[in-house]
């Protein structure tokens, strides 16, 4: 890590702390050359591979925006959506892979959404799983009923 003040290629870690959600590590560093202190933030990158083959960074906001559409008119708060997005990211990071398929991101959304709101789950699943007929809805509703 280069010192941002004198460009010395060495630095010493003085303090390390994890962020509130545990997704990053904040390190306080000191340069042995000029003795100035600076902060670095370390995060593990997580990339999503789309159907087209394009890779982009994982975004909690994209998860929230996609689920928000399914939750329109439902009693789901912004805090609920933020917690859901955090749970999805934690589940994906728990798989231990730096790249994940977009399909797997959608699949990771289904279970937390089912716990949050069953109607929103059906709406999201109908688009995500390409429901073609009433039988698809009927089968999903039967599975929800059997889970109760």
Which key features would you list for this structure?
elongated, 148 residues, three-stranded mixed sheet, alpha+beta, 6 strands, three-stranded antiparallel sheet
Compact description:
The chain has five helices and six strands, in the order E-E-E-E-E-H-H-E-H-H-H. The chain is an alpha+beta fold.
What does this structure look like?
- The chain is an alpha+beta fold and 148 residues long.
- Helices cover 46% and strands 20% of the residues.
- The protein has five helices and six strands; from the N terminus they run E-E-E-E-E-H-H-E-H-H-H.
- A three-stranded antiparallel beta sheet has the order 1-2-3, with no helix packed on it. It has a three-stranded mixed beta sheet with strand order 5-4-6.
- A hairpin with a 5-residue loop joins strand 1 and strand 2.
- Helix 1 crosses helix 2, helix 1 crosses helix 4 and helix 3 (102-116) packs antiparallel against helix 4 (118-128).
Outline the secondary-structure elements.
Blueprint: E1 12-18, E2 24-30, E3 37-43, E4 47-49, E5 55-57, H1 60-70, H2 78-94, E6 99-101, H3 102-116, H4 118-128, H5 134-147
Any low-confidence stretches, pLDDT <50, length ≥5?
none
Distance between the termini: 54 Å
Major beta sheet, strand line-up: 1-2-3
Radius of gyration: 21 Å
Helix segment tally: 5
Question: How many strands appear in the DSSP assignment?
Answer: 6
Q: How is the main sheet built?
A: 3 strands, antiparallel
Describe the global form: elongated
Q: Give the strand content.
A: 15-25%
How does the helix and strand content classify structurally?
alpha+beta
**Mean of all residue-level pLDDT scores:** 90
Helix content: 40-55%
Order of helices and strands: EEEEEHHEHHH
């Amino acid at each position: 890590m280069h010192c941002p003040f004198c460009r010395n290629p060495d630095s010493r870690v003085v303090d390390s702390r994890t962020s509130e959600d545990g997704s990053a590590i904040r390190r306080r560093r000191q340069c042995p050359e000029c003795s100035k202190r600076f902060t670095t933030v370390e995060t593990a990158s997580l990339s999503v591979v789309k159907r087209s083959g394009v890779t982009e960074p994982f975004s909690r906001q994209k998860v929230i925006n996609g689920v928000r559409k399914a939750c329109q008119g439902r009693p789901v708060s912004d805090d609920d959506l933020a917690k859901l997005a955090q749970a999805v990211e934690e589940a994906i990071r728990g798989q231990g892979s730096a790249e994940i398929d977009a399909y797997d991101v959608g699949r990771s959304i289904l279970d937390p959404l089912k716990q949050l709101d069953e109607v929103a789950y059906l709406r999201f699943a109908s688009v995500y799983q390409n429901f073609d007929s009433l039988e698809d809805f009927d089968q999903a509703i039967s599975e929800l009923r059997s889970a109760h």
